[in-house]
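Researcher: Re-running this chain for the archive, since the previous output was lost when a drive failed. Same request as before.
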Amino acid sequence: MAYQRTEKAGLLKRLKDEPRRFIQVIYGPRQVGKTTLVRQIMEDLDFNFCPIVSSK
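Model: Regenerated structure tokens:
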């Protein structure tokens, strides 16, 4: 099992509890695990996704 990000539980709860569809923006400095966090959450939700990563 990979390292689980500390933010994962809160974000996962928010995504499960919210009945409406919405876009969650995750931002921060490079190399801190933003894409890994999204991948872990999407795996838990059994949801196919395509991450869009931008440097700006």
